Amino acid sequence: MARPTSSSDALSKASESQANVSTHGDAIGAAGVKETNIKDIQDLLDKNGESGLISPPADGFNKIHVGLAWNNIIVEKSSGFMGLIKKMTKQGVDLDLGCFFELTDGTRGVLQPFGNLFGNYDQMPFMQLSGDERTGDSKGDDESMAINGQKWSKIKRVLVYAYIYEGANDWSQIKPEITVNLNGKKDNNDALVIRPGLKTNDLTVCAVASINNVKNGIQLVTHGEYFHSHAAMDRAFGFGLKWEDGAKD
């Protein structure tokens, strides 16, 4: 199985180019590979690295919805006599949604299907993943995360990411769509929609966007930054989490 990448390899990769040191907060690692194609970031922000600030409503924020959708890759395979028969088949892709989080009391952690770290909406950390979809064949969002906007004052920052757990390693073929909506819905004109599309065969983790607490308002920052592993992304964004190698059940 190609993933998860060894954390020791990740730390080595993250330190290869200290000339390209990350500028994200208290980061101690190198920056990831940033996507130059910005046409697939829509609505609220225009390009990677931009940020927008939303002031808190009088009654506070409601549920903040983060959705991930993708489709299995359709590939053509040859069969029959001399390979003359062409068949179109689906190639399974297991893409996962996750986040690093930091609460205002200093608590830091991660939510993701790997490790069954799904969180809790009503209790700490006040955010929860929907589950683990391993095919991309669900209608609408394949995976989603709900952040409790009424508890936003207890949340300092959230880094939303997607990672390819199993299947083709080319983001441009998978064509995932990540939606961040402050109104708790997927379909809304005010949603931030990002479609990672980097053509690569080894950068399987994509830092999509940060949702930061600024004076109890919400600051959205787009990233589109790719890494060899979670540990490398962690070093670049300065969360300081501990990582172990493993696999899904």
Short description:
This protein is mainly beta. The protein is 8% helix and 39% strand.
Sequence-ordered SSE layout with sheet pairings:
Layout: H1 7-14, E1 33-34, E2 41-43, E3 51-54, E4 63-69, E5 73-79, E6 85-91, E7 94-103, E8 108-111, E9 119-120, E10 127-129, E11 143-148, E12 155-166, H2 171-174, E13 177-181, E14 192-194, E15 205-214, E16 217-227, H3 230-237
Helix pairs in contact: 1-3
Structure description:
This protein has 249 residues and is mostly beta strands. It has one domain: Lipoxygenase-1 (Sandwich), CATH 2.60.60. The chain is 8% helix and 39% strand. The protein has 3 helices and 16 strands. Helix 1 packs across helix 3. The protein starts with 6 loop residues before the first helix and ends in a 12-residue tail after the last helix.
| Average predicted local confidence, pLDDT | 76
Please state the second-level CATH architecture: Sandwich
Percent in strands: 35-45%
Helix content: under 10%
**Coarse shape:** globular
Which parts are unreliable, with pLDDT below 50 for 5 consecutive residues or more? 1-19, 38-46
> Can you count the beta strands?
16
